[in-house]
């Protein structure tokens, strides 16, 4: 069965007022349109456009609950949430737990009697929340994962040098971080341990940290003067990010933490995969985001919301790793499949129509369960076991598992989310 679905974008303050309407051909409201959710998440379940198809149910959550095995398969729930995300301002620094940590934390907070709606609660469910994002804008800016310790030292040394170019550097502010970074890794202390100690200090609430943040921002502004251009490259984007973050979150320790992280610019069509423990923040841009259907977020700054420092330090992966680009496979012309290797989801990008670059006249894709698709350009037909459904730019659909293999035609671009493994293999 094909069921047309839609939703109203979430109006988070960091959202763009124009990016989603211009992508999907919908109305601009003058208010932020940050995220369009397509899934069964209770926070904003997708609306069903024709309830006569679903026994009168008006949203995916209630319809799936009425007959879960038939509608989504043996698992009984939809394991993913598909979003269109449009950031005009930076989101919070955050990370997500492993499945094991989520289960333990959920049980622990339940046993402690912490209400599910308590703003200080970390674990709203017992699930992990890996996610991927594919850039739809020409540039998609992000922070993700810890950079190599040698790079962090170079950035701090650069700022100390520029700070001391006219007067003595403020060692009473820089001293604690410089001391922590200068510790040499030993058999008992790795680079990851050093990065952990720096983050722990910055989030400790020490009385000198706000002064450090303010002074570092002023030094970054000085470093961005053209006279220092030969010194700041290749760290200019990171220093520009420091200045911008201070405009949004003045004095927040996450501003300094941003210098410890990889600064990434995705081109249109590039993707990131963010596994458990990867600290990240989206800075700006329009993208397709796909994640496990969980609410478990551990924040690390750039937010007025609760930051549980102790739990965050347990969840974060402090190992310095390369930027986690996710390169799609292209099994046939016109089909790109982003496969992160988790059972919760995969994302397929379909390009059909002989007049479109990289497209094919028809494309086949076989979801391993219930699928959700959205057309972002042109018009696409989707044919399954029950017949053919047509979606135009801005329209979305839900396909039950009994549709089987899907054949796409027409002329347009669509993204299709599906489970990454059969129901028996899902967590």
Automatic annotation (TrEMBL):
UniProt-annotated catalytic positions: 299
Q: Which domain of life is it from?
A: Bacteria
This protein's record includes keyword Metal-binding: yes
What's one GO-annotated cellular component? cytosol
The GO molecular function terms of this record are: mannose-6-phosphate isomerase activity; zinc ion binding
Gene3D superfamilies in UniProt = Jelly Rolls (2.60.120.10), Phosphomannose Isomerase, domain 2 (1.10.441.10)
> Where is the Phosphomannose isomerase type I catalytic domain positioned along the sequence?
5-148
Q: Which residues bind Zn(2+)?
A: 94, 96, 131, 280
Known EC number:
5.3.1.8
The cofactor remark states: Binds 1 zinc ion per subunit.
The record's similarity note reads: Belongs to the mannose-6-phosphate isomerase type 1 family.
Checking PANTHER family in the record gives: MANNOSE-6-PHOSPHATE ISOMERASE (PTHR10309:SF0)
The name this protein goes by in its record: mannose-6-phosphate isomerase
What is the protein's species of origin? Herbiconiux flava
